[in-house]
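Suppose you are handed a protein chain with no further information: no name, no annotation, nothing but its sequence. What can you learn? This example shows the usual starting point.
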Amino acid sequence: MFVDTARIFVKSGDGGDGSVSFRREKYVPFGGPDGGDGGRGGDVILIANSNITTLLDFAYKKKYKAENGGNGSGSKCFGRDGNTLCITVPVGTVIRDINSDRIMADLSHEGDKCIVAKGGKGGRGNVRFATSTRQAPDFAEPGMPGEERYISLELKVLADVGLVGFPNVGKSTILSVVTKARPKIANYHFTTLNPNLGVVDIPKITSFVIADIPGIIEGASEGVGLGIQFLRHIERTRLLIHVVDISGIEGRDPFDDFIKINEELKKYDVKLWDRPQIIAANKADMLYDEQVFEDFKQKVSKLGYDKVFKISAATKQGIDELMKEAARMLSTIPIVDSHISDDEKFVPEEKKFTYKIRKEEDTYIVEGSFVDRLLASVNVNDPDELRYFHKVLKNKGVLDELKSMGIKDGDTVVLNDFQFEYML
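A reasonable first move is to predict its three-dimensional structure. Written in structure tokens, the prediction is:
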């Protein structure tokens, strides 16, 4: 089953907590603090693997979580770092952060990888807080939480040449003739429901990958038919072979079809419309009037398309010449890696501990991630830790900001569920 889009939740591991411990040995009753740091949480990494061709696995498993870091312990022992969680995805997968709708990475080569969630940093043990004036700190830092986010995965087929055209014009038949691929072929519209790939390996030409893109119809770029689901798969191709039914046996005008398909490509992405095209006028074996082909060729040449081949996939007429021209043109078109513009690129937010202060009568309320972090790491009922608490408030600039807001002696300062009277 071919699945080319998925949405999953990823969470990296939390950092381990720092340890509060004191050295206690025979003949060393007051050996001082020796609590070690917590370990770092594991990352979540996506890795491109060419052995995978679909995002089917992500249709069944939606949540992925890396291992937490271990807590620190006595004797200055550090906690163990959490294991990294590696998730394999097909080559050609684009990763997007759903919240910002920006691209995190385009894994277009074997082994490409992207860290989609970084593990939390381990907390410091109490040995880190020992100073000449605070020789027995009875507190440590908790570990930092890991990152979590929803991401979308979008698979874009990697092919050198894309076969485009209305349904039932013979794209799948062409693919089956020039490669070993065996797509489903039948005489009705939308026979092909998934992109099919094959390798063209004809004597005296350099082999290349060709993809049969399911039928694009008028209005596809707005969601009509199946085309909107597969237009993305043309984006990586360097050359398009535009297949039309020159026989007209279904009552369609090949030139009109050609114009409509190109309009859909232009609406979806103007870069697709600008891509080099070879026109394959298929079903020539059923052509009732040679003038029809000549008129068609003349019309498209006026639009600047001079590579027009009269072929019949059913009888293999003109197929070799078409493929040789495709190989020749590919040799002149450079392979360019996909570029993510600054407007599209995801920029991770720097993890900062912030606060804000608001005043309600004579009460000053300090709140934010900085406050949560500070209160989680100290015991405000211990005198030594309370001194450290006030030192951190001063170093962070909280006390200076309170002064600038006009705080006076005796006013109340509230931090979550802890409060104290302000004194100069």
